[in-house]
Amino acid sequence: MSKKYVRYNSLNSGNSIGTLFSSLGYETDRFMLAKSYFDCREYYRCAFHLKDCKSPKAVFLKLYAKYIAGEKKKEEDSEGILKPKDGITSNTELITIIKELDDYFTKYDTEDPFLLYMYGIIMSKKKNEKLAISKLIKSVSLYPYNWSVWMELLSCIKSYELLCEIIPKLPKHIMTKFFILTANQEFFQPMQNLQGLIQELDRIFPDLPFLVVQKALINYHNLNYTESEATFDQVIKKDPHRLDDMDTYSNILYVMEMKSKLAFLAQLSSATDKFRPETCCIVANYYSLKSEHEKAIMYYRRALTLNRDCLSAWTLMGHEFVELKNSHAAIESYRRAIDANNKDFRAWYGLGQAYEVLDMHYYSLYYYQRAAALKSMDPRMWQALGNCYDKLERFDDAIKAYKRALQVSEMDPLILFRLGILNEKIQDMKSAAFYMKTCLQEEQNEGVTDETSKARLWLARYELNLSNWEQAQMYASNLIHGTPHEIEEARAIVRDTRSRIESERRDSFINR
Length: 512
What we know:
This protein is mostly helical. The chain is built from 29 helices and no strands. It comes from Nadsonia fulvescens var. elongata DSM 6958.
């Protein structure tokens, strides 16, 4: 059963039992019976026993039970992950629910936070995000302590610009601060932009695990893997059986190639609860690191069987299909990830890579542009865009993209070398030489790399064409790393320049 189906096991969070009962009136007994059925996951049975109830809480539980039952049936009808019907089946209860909600609001002219939340969910499912956002903002204004409403609101916000427009409309409340922090983390904002907010919440809630994890996630999104890994280490020491967000921790261990630590995390999470989507993703990451891609896919499928909206499972399964050269399955996985959350740059970036493998560069360009718009401070997005523009022979755009990559990162020999080559293609040899020399200077920081060696050989050819024999000889003679062909070419340049220098010296001596 998906985690999302049992998320709402308490309708009176933050309220006293007496307050709840007083709002239910004579429907209290029926509500408590239906709530018991809901807790036992008998959703249609729950809805049936509430069919004549009129109180807002009872109506919400009835409609929410119908919604969950419809979602459950939708998944059963889809026949499995990436099967022919997967992704095209729909929740047949949505039409009934929206009609009942409209009738209820018209008849009773009331604004209950839970019913507004239900309305927001349905509008979101119907892709009417504008109306969904309006209803969800009303819901959190009336009752700010329902975190599920905040998360539903965040799922409706498709851009950082829209988030900035919505924030002034939110209630002045401590829960709003938690939402702003989470939303900024979701939109990959840098740590320095959130430092003040984190410090403020830290003063109110010292050592709150949620805040500690948010710091780790922000560092992760900003590629500070070492700091993020250290923070997650602290979390797991204090709460070793925590599974929330541990799939992200496994991603960090995967990137840092900490195989033994990832194996320990997989073992620990399996011992805690082997049927959680997070556990399945952790185990899948472990198998992926061992290059056992088929087993990794099996566990990602298991995670998605437990929760179809598990974004990381869709995205990472796409990566595994790319490794197996199954581009079409990879594309479908990435598309499903975007359907679950179109704010995830990894899915857009993965689609770009998949279409690039298929040599469909215009498609690839579109998806890389979407990824770069979401993660504009990540140099990898701009490098991918530059490479795509290069293949489409849009050299000026490629140069702009690579320059943007340099602006958001440290000097990278690969980017500098690509800029040199692109300037050569547009016949700007002076700029090409500048970037090649800058690339070569990075040997002092990075050591000898393939790019610095190629830049050295390029500069040797460049100086040779300008008849600067001594400069050409200097570059070529210092080439000690490269392919056999490159080293042989460098030796040929050394021989050629040496003979030319000697010839010039003889001519100079004779002319004297």
